[in-house]
Amino acid sequence: MNDFDPQDDADGFIAVIGMAGRFPGAADIDEFWANLAAGTDSVTRETPQVFPGGAPDGSDLTYVPSRGRLDGAEWFDADYFGYSAKEAFLIDPQHRVFLECSAVALEDAGQDPDRFPGAIGVYGGSTETQYAQALSAQREQLAGVTEDDILLGTSPDFLVSRTAQRLGLRGPAIAVQSACATALVAIHTAGRGLLAGDCDMALAGGVAVHVPPKKITWSGPDGTLSPDGTCRAFDAKGDGTVASNGVGVVVLKRLSDALSDGDHIRAVLRGSAVTNDGSARIGFTAPSVEGQAAAVREAQLTAGTDARTITYVEAHGTATPLGDPIEIAALTQAFRDGTDEQGFCSIGSVKTNIGHADAAAGAAGFIKTVLALGHRQIPPSLHFTEANPQIDFESSPFRVATELRDWAPAGATRRAGVSSFAVGGVNAHLVLEEAPERPVRESERRAQLLVHSARTPYALRARLDRFEAHLAGQVHPAYADVAWTLQTGRREHAYRAFAVAGDGSAPEPVLAAGPPRERPVVFLFPGTIGPAEAWRLYTTEPAFQEAFDAALDSGDRELVTSVREVARGLRRPGDPVVRDAYVFAFEYALAALWQRWGVRPGAVFGTGVGSLAAAVVAGVFPLADALRLITEPTRSRAGDEELRRLVHSVGTQAHRIPVILGDGTWYDADMPIIAEQWAGELRDQADPDAALGTALADPGRVLLQIGAGSTLVRLARQQPAHTPAHLLLAALADLDEGGDALAALYQALGQLWLSGITVSWTGVHEGESRVKVALPTYPHERLPYLVRHPAEEARAAPGAGIRGTASEDARTTDEEPATGSAADGIGRLEADDRPADDTPLGLVLRLFGEALGLADVEPEESFFELGGDSLVAVKLLARIREIYPVEIKMRSLFTSATAADLAGLIEQRLAELDQDTEEGST
User: Fold this and answer.
1) Could you tell me how far CA 533 lies from the centroid of its own chain?
2) 168 and 114 in contact (C-beta within 8 Å)?
3) Per-residue pLDDT tens for 613-630?
4) Fewer CB atoms near the end CB (10 Å): N or C, the chain?
5) Distance of alpha carbon 842 from its chain centroid, rounded?
6) What's the DSSP call for residue 117?
7) 355 backbone φψ class: left, alpha, beta (φ>0; ψ -120 to 50)
8) CA 586, CA 576: separation in Å to the nearest integer?
9) How much is the pTM?
10) Dihedral sign from CA coordinates of 833, 836, 839, 840
11) 3-state secondary structure string, 557-622?
């Protein structure tokens, strides 16, 4: 790997910190790399067609309709992005795929837009599809839909602005349209925007998805399509490319920022350039050697690299008889400005694997090259056996990569070029470099808190399963960096789970019992001696160490030494002053640690010397005066009057945090507490029942015991005011000899996070510089949303539609639901048209029949197996809502697809509604 000097070498470069993509045969970039490394051809080929006299020599030509298909492109997690089913139907599937891919790329980068301090831009483009025409042709089936609705949902102009709006991105949202070079031009533009300060992080990429698949028409021997559906880049038999689908998005950041922020850097974008061929070519669609060479050379100069150090080029490589020779000639011309060496640079084209992905083609090549840099391997370019005779490879710097091989350049650094050229003369070239070496920093902390969240319980379970499988493939997971990535690099959703990982494997995660919400926390200070095992907090937690030292700062050397020996378990606390000083310092330091972690007290209460710690945390006494109240010789023999005078001499201040005194009185921050009351608190060991009853008055409160044992929490559970809604935590209650106090505290912190407390994760990792790592991304729960053009419906079998393919993440029935024809509509049931069987089952059977044009429907027959699709389902559910006061979601219909199951679900919802009504009336 490369070894950067962050100050000298990072300026002017861009870090690639995240990626996501879906390509033919690959649902994600891991599958994409596996296919590339294995040399997999992912193009789908159909039945050959014969064109009499279609060959250049007049003979018959056999044409194989072929395309790189994107499986399940109409499936979309609408709920995740806050879309209703109707809204999802109106959005072009390629826009939805780009949006989802952008969210996945941000997770791969370990970036939460909600917590990112700067501006995030998005740059991208798409291709033209026929989805707008399909929507317009089905306007009668889409009640209330206007032409503006269709325009907003399908126009390429709104691809990136929709992404910015749904992901909460506040930087530039720039639509890029440069035909086949769109994605690479978007990456170039994003990089320039970052260097100019337009944004602090950027998403960039492209998408080309046709759903249903675009009908490919043979354009003749002079066209760009390969007759046999095989892209043979640079080969003597190369006669064209293959149309394809795909989407790719990368996350970019200034390299200097990525290094200082500890981001997971996949590669470095050193330089890029975009040119146009101008008029120096034979026609508008013809490529130009001079224009392409200028782009390549300018990118190399911008990158500050010698051409000899570039040992791989991901070429445009369309396998056209004219395009390939011109591209190699242009590359050779550009490289010859820096070196005369031959055959040192491998070259390949991803189009031989997946076809030409149009607006996403540059993203496919870029992502392939970044993956190759990361794996330190060059994958094969397929279907190459003999060089195109118009290409002089022998005297050029290039050789076609025909097999997977280790990437071991003569120099120390792996560098690559990526090209993308477009009809119309747009030429884009980028220079990439492998990621800089990053030192591994071990953590002094023996425990780590791993947090997970999702929008639904099903997605949370899938997320946990993915994470477990990911860790199973690692010998020694870097739990500290894994924890940091999970804590700061994921959006926080409603359904949550956590686990505390130690030296061994992570235990079974703890799941939240209810939805998170901000809750006030009451700090309880028991005033009890702490375990020696907690002393390790002094060495690993700066906040604890600072507070512990500050609490004893005004004490004499003998006292401080004695307290430290007690804290370390080296002596027993025989002296009451030493004991109290230790308990005070320990509980005060724990409170400081919790606050550094973001857990702020909404009120405090303490018993014994714990009441003094509570008073200091509330701001009543300065630390030095509090220690004086412990060590003052008169305190141990003072009566009430003497102690009152001592408190008076020390002086009290207005408390900043509400205080609960032993008699159960709640004192808000603006309510003064006289010295006599504090003297009584410090003198008497009051029964805490009254104070705990006050603390429990609000069922939303959390009671957190600050200190050893569980006395106060145990008593709180016995109070009449205690309810299941309360959260009571005693972090150090079960700390055994040799146990880890930090792990115990993390268990409590995990519970607080589950309940909705906002945690300061930088505080949790204070004193250590953690880095982001690549982890499994969100398991989107997709459903199909597709409106077909009537002409497309006519080509499908009646009632069958064309079934989509679910991703592995989708929660569907065993038989995938149809996504085909829109029905004629569900008529309204008038009073005299209600079914004779006036039950939910009778109604559902009737609605199924009317919606699907069937005279008879059996209770166990599935809506989707009968020919229903998502569009008809929307209307079906709307009719059910008109008749019954229940809300049935689209996802529920997929899991209750038979008439009997759906009727049972309606009855269940009605029963729940009746129960709620009864409870509300009592």
Assistant:
1) 37
2) yes
3) 999 999 999 999 899 888
4) C
5) 44
6) S
7) left
8) 15
9) 0.86
10) negative
11) HHHHHHHHHHHCCCCCCCCHHHHHHHHHHHHHHHHHHHHHCCCCEEEEEECCHHHHHHHHHHCCCC
